Every structure is written in structure tokens, then in C-alpha cells.
Amino acid sequence: MKDVLLIALFAFLGAAAAGLLGAGVLRLLRHRSLVVSLSVVAGVAVAAMLAGTLTVAWAMFLSSHDLYVVTTVVAMAALVSLATAVLLGRWVAAHSRELTLATRSFGDGGTFAAPTGQPTAELAELARELAATSAKLDSSRERERALEASRRELVAWISHDLRTPLAGLRAMAEALEDGMAADSGRYLRQIRTEVDRMNGMVGDLFELSRIQAGSLTLTPARISLYDLVGDALAGVDPLAREHGVRLIGDRIDEVPVEVDGKEMSRVLGNLLINAIRRTPPDGTVAVAAHRSDGGVVLSVTDGCGGIPEEDLPRVFDTGWRGSHARTPPAGAGLGLAIVRGIVEAHAGRAEVRNVQGGCCFSVTLPAA
User: Fold this and answer.
1) What band does 325 get if pLDDT is binned at 50, 70 and 90?
2) Burial readout 202-230 (b: 16 or more C-beta within 10 A, e: otherwise)
């Protein structure tokens, strides 16, 4: 038993010396290629075995011939190990360079294409993560391009919608000033109407800027969805009568919600006004509300004839106004963007889908 312990001690001392030396070499070469690191690791393993073997052999007073045989065997193992380490290192390094080149192209604005046949599970996992990140970046770039296009359209449309009434206001003001207006009362009423419309556009811009800046302050309170919808329907009833549109709100469940009443009234008002203006005379706008597994769902269904499928993802974008002419009272395309912003501020979501004869806008809010 004592001899075994001595052999183990001598073997450990020899291997430990080789290991410490190898650790120092690895520290010095830690910034070098993977091929060098793998070669050092293989060399340390063989050197540790050789040092332990030789230490035990010397302690056992082996003959020169036996010591030569042991050394030769260990040297051959070292050559094979080093060759294997170099080949593996060159293989991994080559695939690593391919991955680096692919990553560089996707960092420059391209799309990441993962090289095939990654040699290790870690590199394969890294390639999958880079591919997923590339897909997210592509989606973000596409979203950013769409938002930028929406901003440009918004600026153009706002300029058009403001310039037209301003020109009319100037003409009417000049006519009144020169005494050329045959019916000054009608001119004044028209001026008041145009001023109210422009004031509404400016108010929408201010509200949207607060939403996008994250400075929209909510004051939640527990209210009945039935009362909220009832007030909104009463507010838009004159507009519906003017357009000859029927309002239906008999499918409203009396469920409580905890929302900012003022902001949610704006959401309902925007959805109802938009639905009434897009629905032809003798059409119907229906409002429904019910509890679901995901919360409380409030929907407004109109008779607009539907939205083209390619436009559905853009409906809530800033400045989107569909294919209708940009003439009053079309608005600046801010109403639905405001709807989405306010709903998301309430931790809800706004969606739209086509139904028979029109489309359905739905708002899902957390249940109280």
C-alpha cells in the first residue's frame, strides 16, 4: 500500500509541474488563435502524462532500455495528440472565420446567412442566435421604413389639409374685409367650421406627440363598460343621423373595466366617427362588448366594404388613410394611431379584421 501511495505521489508531482507550466503558457497565449490553444492543451495533457510516467520510472530505477521504451511510447502519443489538436483547431478556426464574415455582412445592413456544418454545438447555437437577431433586425428595419414613409405621408397630408382651409379662410376674410360677401353670416359660420376642423387636427397632433413621447398620463378608475359605450353612442348620434347611418349597441355586457374614462371615450369616439364616415347611407355601425379569456373585448363593426388585405397591417400606422380621397372630412390619418397608442398605454391591444360587408375594429382591455 505504501508503494502505491509513493507512485501516486511521484506521478502527481510530475503531472502537476507540467500542468502549472502549461497553465502559464496558456495565459501568455490566451489572445492567440484557437489552433495554438488546442495545441497547448494537447501538449499539456501529454507532457503531464510523460512527466508523471518518467518521475515514477526514475523512482522505480527502471533500466535504460525500459525507460527508453516508455519515453518512445509517450512521444508517439504526443505526436498523434498534437496532430489531432492542430487539425481540430484548424477546422474550428476555419468555420469561425466563416461565421465572422457572415456576421460582418449582416452588421453592414445585409441579412445573416448562417454557414452550414458548424463543427461544435456552441458555434451552431451562436449561428442560430445570430440568424434570429438578423431576422429581428430585418423586421425592425422594415418597420422603421414603414414608419418613415408614414411620417412623410403625414407631413404631406397635414400640409395639404392645412393649406386648403387656410386659403379658403384668407379668401373669405378678404371678401368680408372688402365688403364683397353677399351673406356675411354664412361666411362667418364657414370660417368657424374650418377653424374648428383645424383645431381638431392640431389637437390630434398634440395627443399623438404625447403618446409617442411616452408622456401620456392616465388616471384609471373603475367604470362600467356599458356606461362608457352609452355615452360614446350618445355623442356620435347626431353625426350618424346626418350621414343616415344606424347605430346598434344592444350587445353590451355590463362588465367593469379600470381605465381612464376620458382617454377611452376618445378611443370609442375615434372608432365610431371613423366607422360612421366610412359607412354608406342606410348602413349600420354596431358596437359590442363582452368578457373573454384575454380580458374585455370591445368591437366596432362598420359597413365600409372591407380593407384590402395588404393594407390591414398599416391601418393603425400614423398618417394611414386608405384609398379614399384626401378631402374633408377625411382627417389627417391620426385617429387610429391615437386609438392604438391609448389602448397600448392601458396594457391592451387594438386589432382590425375584415368581415362581411365591412371591417371590425376590436379593442382588448385587461379585466378589472
Assistant:
1) very low
2) eebeebbeebeeeebeeeeeebebeebbe
